[in-house]
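Field guide to reading this record: the first block holds the primary sequence, the second block holds the structure written as discrete tokens, and the final block holds curator observations. Each block starts with its own label. This record concerns SUF system NifU family Fe-S cluster assembly protein, catalogued under organism Clostridium sartagoforme.

BLOCK 1 — SEQUENCE
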Amino acid sequence: MDLNEIYTTLIMEHSSSKHNRRKLENPDLCEKGHNPSCGDEIELELKINGDIIEDLAFTGQGCAISQASTSMMIDLIKGKDKKEALELVETFIGMIKREINDEEELEVLEDAIVLKNISNMPARVKCAVLAWHTLKEAFNK
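BLOCK 2 — STRUCTURE
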């Protein structure tokens, strides 16, 4: 399998996967994210215990990239504390903006590293970063 196949497979798996697509009961934080250029709309719901992100899920619809990116982000940050989560958000956004290229530094992103090449597709960048920006907004409130 070449990198493009891995990329496509992971995007398809995550965008069609339902394990992160649900409503949480009594979430502590809710934040809507919207990307007008593509019509992507998501709502993140988080359960926070102290500083730990105990659970998070999303609802909404959009292109495969926004949905896959959201699911990958959730897998990555569930169980982490806010500080770690925000560091991962910055790393992901840095990767997409091509500010971080060091493979070792990017390994912390796990599956989400496959979205690295989206930086070559300016029209898709907003789709990829939607959930990550939405999470940041939720924490800034």
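BLOCK 3 — OBSERVATIONS
The mean pLDDT is 94.
The helical segments are 3-16, 64-77, 82-96, 103-106, 122-140.
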